[in-house]
Amino acid sequence: MDDGWLHLLLDEATPEQLIAHRDRLLAAAPERAPAVERDTQAALALRLQLEQRRQRATELAALNDIASQLTTLHDPAALLTEIAAQARRLLGVDLVYIGLVSGDNVVIEVASGAFTSRLVGLSLSRTEGLMGRVMAQDAPLWTPDYRADPTFPHTGPADVAARSENMRGLLAVPLRHGGRMLGAVCACKRQERTFSDDEVVLLSALAAHAAVAIDNARSIARSKETVAALEDANTELARRTDLLERTLRWDRALTQVVLRGGGVRELVAEVSESAGCPAYFVLGPDEVPAGLGGHRDAVASVFDALDSGADRQVAIATREGRSLVGREVRAAGDRLGVLLLLAPSDPVPVLPLILERATPAIALALVGERAAHEAGRRARDALVVDLITRPAPTADESQQQFRLAGLNPDRRYTVAVARPESDVARTRSQIEDIPLPQGTVVAEHGSRVIVLVPGLAPAAVLEIWTQPDTAPTVGLADPAGGGEGLARAYSEAQQTVDVLETLGRGSQVAAASRLGIYRILLSRTGRAELTAVTEQMLGPLLREQEQRGVPLLDTLASYLEHNRRHAATAADLAIHANTLYQRLESIDRLIGKQWRDPDRALDLQLLLRLRSGACRLD
């Protein structure tokens, strides 16, 4: 990549400016078109990644600033107003309202961006609307169009308020602190809106800050209600202030890790340092890290307790006299894993809060890593598809194509094409679990999964092949090398899939060499066309055969196979010559005597072979 790209990226050039730079390079040196295109794609990808990181840093910095601002507000009404205004600004929505639990109901205390005054003061059942469902499930939920969503009963005061405010896209996250459900925060767009995982995590993080601040403000308000409780209130305020300062320090530390480009491992290390005890991120009970090898039963108990839905955070005593504290890491309602702390037998009270503060940051990092992984996987798939569909014209370019696709230009590969009826991603995942040789490359191309296996012939691949439960139709070509060779092999494998489906052998696996001439004859012929031709030329014989039970098709096939020799045909069918003449007369009557013409006879013979091709190939 030349220096011009770097200068443009440093100057935060727009995509249009990058494309313009590409056009200038192409105009100056057309022969460098492939390299210029690669540099262009790399520059665009790098710019997108820098923009995403800058956006994430901006959001985290804004979240940190908001948390600092919330600590300065002690009036409950002012605090709720500030939370709603900041949430509306941070997510770029039209309306944000906050409902707090009051007995058996939820009362909407504040609304930012409301059209009318109907929302504020509205008292709803704790089971009503999206807000009630969020608090019942203790997990974020969203709908792209609340008013058209059939899963909600559109009756009662909640629906009246939704119509008056023209609520469409709606996201709600719970307000929870210290094991208590405080209420929920709802963000609304007045158009249909799909909320991303990042937005869900962002509002959840703000809600976590808000929950602490709301609880703190309530404590301060309660402390002013009676002089007799002033000392206790001051003590509690000091404790909570200290806890909030610790929370902010943890948040700043976690934010710095993210800003440095750190991932889940660095965030877990920061949690371990803050908590003063070992921390681990575990995907499931069967994937226990080495440090928890002696606590497998406790890890399993943590997951069982979380699966029961009692709470998102649990503490389990281990056999060694310690305590394993775990909290779910969630995004968009899905569990991504569990953050575990191996603490002393009597855990420090702040450990649950450390987990509560850390899990949103880890969830955000995981979502980012998954997005980056998915982008990388799609890029690799595109390189593989480019290699087998548009091989490079020169040896140097071909070698570069191979290297970019993760293939060895000096090796030969068996190319397999798998086409499921649905769920290509699941088919790919299960194919990747097959114990194929090292260096095997798997890619998606539209509705197909492409597999390039080094060092094995199709027969050897078939021996170790495990058919996915999506039952794809699979074709394998003979081993090939080089760009042109792999392109031909891919075409043969694809033709094999087409032929298997045409012959009614979908969901089967076959090598191209087993299909012989059928791969050529049927590669572009659909089963519907073959059925139509069969009905046109042989339909009367089929119906007569079914009604009378006379094997007219077998008679016709044998007669043509024996070059229309009567004696040989009668011997092959083990019938008398007169019987043969009677059957031939029936064939004349049903489809006309023109079938005896050499050209027409050849057509019929080929059609009869194609009809029996599926069973002959087995």
From TrEMBL:
Pfam short name (any one): GGDEF_2
Keyword presence, Coiled coil: yes
Coiled-coil stretches: 220-247
InterPro entries in alphabetical order: CdaR-like_regulators, CdaR_GGDEF, GAF, GAF-like_dom_sf, PucR_C-HTH_dom, PucR_C-HTH_sf
Domain of life: Bacteria
Domain spans labelled GAF: 75-224
TM annotation in the entry: none
Swiss-Prot/TrEMBL keywords: Coiled coil
SUPFAM superfamilies associated with the record: GAF domain-like
Keyword match Transit peptide: no
Homology family: Belongs to the CdaR family.
Protein name per Swiss-Prot or TrEMBL: GAF domain-containing protein
Organism of origin: Rhodococcus spelaei
